[in-house]
Design goal:
The protein is of the alpha+beta class. The protein is 26% helix and 29% strand. The strands form 4 sheets. Strands 13-12-9-10-11-14-18-16 form an 8-stranded antiparallel sheet. Strands 3-2-1-4 form a 4-stranded parallel sheet, sandwiched between helices. Strands 5-8-6-7 form a 4-stranded antiparallel sheet.
Length: 399
């Protein structure tokens, strides 16, 4: 039986473990958090940090694995590539993975290769040269994900506190301060693409929604189809294809977040060498009638994927899908989550990560998500009305 090493066992990563088992692989899980749910699904489990490259390599070599994957995890992606290169297993280039997972390196790569990149500064302490930077700016850790430690400031008086917040979430105690680029469209563009043999086979581009009342920086869901002009979509695809080829990405899911500005310029904000979280692969699997989780697992094991671009286009016309990350603007202990009956009728998939009595935190980064729902609508108008008012269509009841 072939063995796969999975890095991370959070609620959102369990699907990778169960999919690998369904495909007949022996699953080995690493996650240092003692309460990770993945350990109860994997065949074998070790409480080891997924960012400890040498420790992960030792387990991989001792277990004689056939493949490794960091599903929906930016911090673990460089580890997976490192181990795979050491053991001559399927992987994208380690240098490229490192570039995408470090915001400073990524910005440098963009500038070197004639992509648009905001003016930025990197610092490890509170001494930073802000000359040449124009407000507003966004301050974030260089090596984190899920909008953790991220702040937009419109006055330099808040820079120190924003840096302090960013440092809390940086493994290297480093932050990047960069100019905030305004988009011309209603939503950021998010979602996943899937690559096979160096070519993009699936364009899972989605509208990326925010809850402005809670945190304007943290995604609260996605919707489909993409609300952009065809000309903008062509520009986006050209830039992403150029990025994939420059970095020599060979296979797998890539998570994308970008905007188009008022001058019709594409800005790649974040590109992660892994599948997106919050049920993005599950949402796209429904839309495109493929199993993206299965494809990601098979690709990491070096399986040959016979994919034609025509097979990976939306199987339905005039359909409207959306996801929403359940969240709270209060703290406390969960009693229950109540859904309006009209919303319940639209839900086709529901994953709840919290149970009665669990601690609930204020939604200031993606890790505070309580669960995710996927909805299907009959019209664009119905979807918009629901998403615009979704906070009134369910209730987080706290004790």
């Amino acid at each position: 039986m072939k063995k796969i090493l999975l890095l991370g066992g959070s609620s959102q990563q369990v699907v990778a473990i169960t999919t690998a088992k369904r495909l007949g692989y022996y699953t080995i899980l690493l996650d240092y958090l003692p309460d990770n749910p993945g350990q109860f699904f994997a065949d074998e489990y070790y409480p080891i940090s997924t960012t400890d490259k040498d420790a992960v390599l030792r387990v991989a070599q001792q277990s004689k694995i056939d493949g490794i994957i960091a599903y929906a995890s930016d911090p673990a992606a460089p580890t997976a590539a490192y181990v795979a290169e050491k053991m001559s297993l399927p992987t994208n280039p380690l240098n490229s993975v490192n570039t995408l997972c470090n915001k400073d390196q990524f910005r440098h790569f963009l500038k070197e290769n004639c992509f648009n990149a905001p003016e930025s500064r990197v610092c490890k302490d509170y001494n930073i040269d802000i000359s040449g930077l124009t407000l507003p700016v966004i301050v974030k850790p260089i090596d984190s994900s899920g909008s953790k430690g991220t702040t937009v400031i419109k006055s330099w008086e808040y820079l120190q506190s924003a840096l302090k917040y960013a440092f809390l979430f940086s493994r290297s105690h480093s932050a990047i301060v960069e100019e905030y680029i305004e988009k011309k469209h209603n939503y950021l563009v998010g979602g996943d693409i899937f690559i096979n043999n160096g070519e993009i086979k699936l364009w899972g581009l989605l509208n990326c929604h925010r809850d402005m009342k809670v945190n304007a920086l943290v995604p609260v869901g996605k919707s489909y189809p993409l609300e952009l002009d065809d000309s903008d979509v062509r520009l986006i695809k050209n830039e992403i294809e150029r990025l994939v080829h420059k970095l020599q990405i060979k296979f797998g899911s890539i998570n994308i977040e970008l905007i188009v500005d008022n001058n019709n310029e594409v800005w790649l904000l974040d590109v992660g060498p892994r599948a997106g979280g919050n049920l993005i692969p599950e949402l796209l699997s429904i839309i495109f009638n493929v199993d993206l989780v299965e494809l990601a697992i098979k690709a990491s094991m070096g399986e040959i994927l016979e994919l034609n671009t025509k097979d990976m286009i939306s199987q339905e016309k005039n359909v409207f899908f959306a996801s929403h990350n359940l969240h709270s603007d209060k703290i406390g202990k969960l009693d229950r989550i109540q859904f309006d009956s009209n919303l319940e009728k639209k839900i086709i998939e529901k994953k709840i990560y919290k149970s009665k009595g669990n601690d609930i935190e204020y939604f200031n980064d993606a890790s505070k998500t309580l669960g995710t729902i996927i909805m299907k609508f009959e019209s664009k108008e119905e979807m918009k009305k629901t998403l615009d008012n979704i906070n009134e269509l369910y209730r987080i009841v706290l004790k």
